[in-house]
Specification:
globular; mainly alpha; ABC transporter involved in vitamin B12 uptake, BtuC
Length: 342
């Protein structure tokens, strides 16, 4: 009996070590892939660029530092933020089709931009940097206004389903106001707003990065601190409570983290579809587990890689494509597969 018990312990230890080695190889591969895609994203575009020789000419140096590097960092931040926030929303609502925009943060940002562009306020400000700052500020105010209403609701309601419905209704109200503004808009203002809704990584420069980077970084740190609580929430509120998790506080922190991540990306890049819904499923499929200790960092890396791929494909032609168009080609088939399997 003692021999059998010792043999069982050895087999268990060997299985654990094998799983650890597999995860180390996987995450190392993802990091190397992220590095390779980052370099390829810097090089690709209407003008092929060698990043190691970009300092030889003034034009190449300007393209590298003012366009390609900010765009590459934006793709990494946006992909990571949307994927992690989508994972948290799927865990909170225990819904495989939940995404980072399910609480209406995107609708709030769209409302802010619509008020500035379609409402004609930006026309009084003029063009250039001041106009871009004003539109970005309006998007931030709109997204965090919706987030504030959702957070207030989260303190009042006890059911995640009720919170989901309230978030969707707040988003619907914001969407209805946007539709009203579009109905009375002049063609030029309407074109400016619709261009923003397509989603773009090209609109973020170093000045915008000074705001976007800290907001997304705080959201990612907060999500990493919630890993243990997320694993408890994944099994249901009753189980989480039995584990000693403060469900109400955890739910509020998840909403705050999602608002920072999804809102921080949307206000600068516009809505980017499907990444936040599809990537968590890719991470679970690759890892073969739903543990957030692994799926959250994996979603972060896979999301960054996926959006870099989308950005590379967008920049291949003479005229750049909207990033949401390409991300939908990746995300939509995955979502269809999820629905069919379920």
């Amino acid at each position: 009996m003692q021999f059998l018990h010792k043999a069982k312990k050895i087999r268990t230890f060997a299985a654990v070590m094998k799983e650890k080695r597999k995860n180390i190889v996987l995450f190392t591969s993802l990091l190397l892939l992220l590095l390779a895609l980052s370099l390829l994203d810097i090089c690709s575009g209407s003008r092929w660029l060698n990043p190691f020789a970009a300092g030889e000419t003034l034009v190449d140096k300007q393209i590298l530092w003012q366009l390609r590097l900010p765009k590459m960092l934006t793709a990494i931040l946006a992909g990571a933020a949307l994927s992690v926030s989508g994972l948290m929303m799927q865990t909170l609502f225990r819904n495989p089709l939940a995404g980072p925009y399910i609480l209406g943060v995107s609708s709030g940002a769209s409302l802010g931009v619509a008020v500035m562009t379609i409402g004609g306020i930006s026309a009084f400000i003029g063009t250039g940097a001041a106009n871009n700052i004003a539109i970005t500020g309006a998007a931030i105010v709109g997204s965090f206004l919706v987030l504030g209403l959702v957070m207030l609701t989260a303190r009042k309601v006890k059911s995640n389903v009720s919170l989901l419905i309230v978030g969707m209704m707040i988003g619907s109200i914001a969407g209805a106001v946007v539709n009203l503004l579009q109905n009375f808009a002049n063609p030029d203002a309407l074109k400016l707003f619709i261009t923003w809704t397509f989603g773009s990584l090209n609109s973020v420069g170093w000045s915008e990065m000074r705001v976007m980077l800290p907001v997304v970084a705080v959201g990612l740190v907060l999500s990493l601190l919630l890993i243990k609580d997320l694993d408890g929430m994944r099994l249901g509120e009753n189980y989480a409570t039995a584990l000693g998790i403060n469900v109400e506080r955890t739910r509020l922190m998840i909403v705050v983290a999602t608002g920072l991540l999804a809102g921080g990306v949307t206000v600068f890049c516009g809505p980017i579809a499907f990444v936040g819904v599809a990537v968590p499923h890719i991470a679970r499929g690759i890892l073969g587990t739903s543990s957030h200790r692994l799926t959250l960092p994996a979603s972060l890396l896979i999301g960054a890689c996926l959006l870099l791929v989308c950005d590379i494909l967008c920049s291949l032609g003479t005229y750049p494509l909207p990033v949401s168009t390409v991300s939908a080609l990746f995300g939509a088939p995955i979502i269809i597969r999820i629905i069919v399997r379920s």
